[in-house]
Amino acid sequence: MPYTLINLLDLIEIGGQSTCVGSKSGGKERCGNHNLITDVEKADLILLMMGSGASRKLVRMFLRNLAVFSLCKKNHQGQIEGVVKKWTEHTASTSMFEDTKSSKIPRIWYQTVENLKAELQQAQGLYSSAKTEAQKLKVSLEDARLQGQKAQELAQNTQIEVQRLLAENRSLKTSLTQISQEHRVSNLASSKLEAQVETLLQAKVELSESNIYLRTECAAAEEQVKTIRLQFATMEDVNSKLREDLEKTQQANLGLADTVSNLKSGVQGWKNKSIDLEWQVASLEKRLEVSTTSKDSLRGKLTDLRAKFEASKATEKKLTERNATLNLRTRELEKLQKEKQLVECEDERDETAMGAGISDEAQSVSTSWQCAVM
């Protein structure tokens, strides 16, 4: 049975997916690789904005980012276009996403839109009042034309009256020309206001999206910095404990070195004594030939001396093993100290790289949104 991509409307209700929504094995089953926690949080934010009501233009922009954060970085980033296409088909069957002029406007944009509508209504009121004045002037012009006709009829009686009426006619024509020009200016101003209102709406939407995205990125970066600082503090505690253990071990090694040297001196003395005892045993064995009565006592002494000799050898062996163990612990502590120094250097590099990475990421995000606005 082929794998079916999760419906976008169900995804809005469920939230961001912790596992990859891509397909594997030729589209027969879901990938299931775990997504990053930060990607799941970003997907939740995008789904929340889509669920609050957004225009189809914004939905098309959101879907690509949602696909990026819902597919695993390892294997299925190449399936972004296919996932976006299927989710776009899901949006076509619902009325949740309307155009920008729909009544389903997110609350974060509602007040700005109302203010712009009020300004537009005020401009339309000014335009209507100018239009009314123009109509009144047209009526006056008609009256003037009637008076001109009457003046032409009276021109036969007096030429002076005709000249006066002609002059009034010219002045009225001039006024009409000015009124028509003012009417054209008012029309141009109204069209410019409408274009500015539409541009402001689009800029407001894009700025809101950019601010939300940047806040999300900054919050994630701050969490990463806090985690690194906690790790660094933990490493410092571990390093201080390792230093204390190293100092104690070094002091113990000094004491053990003195003890080993003393034991070596004692062993050497026991060896010398054993040589003397061997000579004594040899002499006693010669004397055994002379004195049979002291033979048993000499044999007992010989046994005791041999037992002491064996005990001294065993003690020497234990001291040698203990010295080897101490040397091994000393090497391990020196190795731990070197690893601690390497970890401190790597922590400093990571902290420096993290600071540079955060600034580069913020700059890249700002550049990408500027390009989207353009």
UniProtKB/TrEMBL annotation:
This is Uncharacterized protein. It comes from the Eukaryota. The keyword Coiled coil applies. Keywords: Coiled coil. Residues 345-374 are annotated as: Disordered. Residues 361-374 have a biased composition (Polar residues). Residues 113-182 form a coiled coil.
